[in-house]
Amino acid sequence: MTGLFSHGPVPLENTLDFRGDPGLLGPDSVSWRVQGDASVFIGGVRALLVQSAHAEVVAGVEDHSSYRVDPLGRLSRTSVYVTETTYGAMPEVEAAVATVRNAHRPVKGRSERDKAYSAAHPAMAAWVHNVLTDSFLAAYQTYGPEPLSITDADQFVAEQARIGELLDADPLPRTATDLRQWITNHPDRVATKGQRRAIAFLRNPPLSPPVRLGYRLVFNAAVATISPPLRDQLDLVESRHAEAIGGRTIETLRWALGASPSWNLALIRCDAPVPDGLFRQALHTDA
After folding, report:
1. Which residue from 183, 252, 216 is spatially nearest to 39, judged by alpha carbons?
2. Angstrom distance (rounded) from CA 259 to CA 261
3. C-beta of residue 89 within 8 angstroms of C-beta of residue 27
4. pLDDT tens sequence across 143-183
5. Where are the alpha helices (DSSP H) in 40-172?
């Protein structure tokens, strides 16, 4: 399953060079808990699905992304960005943001409804960022070890907004309810041919049989967390028992893999306590 997210650079390779640096959010943040859980796999796929509901965002992906020849590349690049901005020391956070800014700079054009778009525009950056935040939250609330309280869910959204600010995204809702309503009522949620092509690809990307099986479980579990109005626009249908199967899948991954090794590394970097039994994967470090 981790193969879905491991087609890019290894995040935080040198993070222990920045001893004592808590990064942007720090070990007491809700984000470290949420992004360190296995439910993040479902959140990543959900974000790609929902992001395609925006007419200009999906046009930018269609016109400038290599996802059709590198089906897992976009997912992996998103994973690296999320990991480095969440768990990285400040130099790593700043480098991750700079990488995204450079990638977004040439992404310009006109959508199929003849509206100009630019990936660097605050409104487009906001859609991508806010959907990512909402997707990780939705996945955790459904498949995490236990749902966050209202207070902790709002804190997660507010923490993630601090990351969005680094990309000049605007607006950035600060509570879970405001975030969900902003996405649901967004005026640029328009069904397009680009959206249909993106969803068709995400339904059945060209993956090897073992990876395809794991991806299908994650895809169905992700669809189950999308609200009915969005599912209708995206022409997605919740599969029978998808949530239950997704829950069992994530429980198995949580048991087998433990929490994210990036979280583990970040705790070590900060000289923060490392909880017993939370992490299972060996760290490729001399620390």
Report:
1. 252
2. 6
3. no
4. 999 999 999 999 999 999 999 999 999 999 999 999 999 99
5. 40-51, 55-64, 73-87, 90-104, 122-143, 150-166
Give the tokens for residue 123.
């409104």
Region label for 240, one of left (φ > 0), alpha (ψ between -120 and 50) or beta (otherwise): beta
Which among 138, 113, 140, 134 is positioned nearest to 54, based on CA atoms? Answer: 113
Beta strand pairing status for 116-118 and 108-110?
Answer: antiparallel
Asked whether the beta carbons of 8 and 72 are under 8 A apart, the reply is no
pTM, to two decimals: 0.94
| Nearest CA-CA partner of 139 in 10, 264, 225 | 225
CB-neighbour burial class of residue 26 (10 A; exposed 0-12, middle 13-18, buried 19+): middle
DSSP 121: S
| pLDDT tens profile 43-77 | 999 999 999 999 999 999 999 987 777 777 788 88
Q: How far apart are CA 105 and CA 119, in angstroms?
A: 7
Q: Is residue 137 within 8 Å of residue 155, measured between CB atoms?
A: no
Q: Where are the domains of the chain?
A: 2-269
In three-state secondary structure terms, 110 is: strand
d(CA 210, CA 228): 30
- The count of other CB atoms within 10 Å of the CB of residue 233 is 17
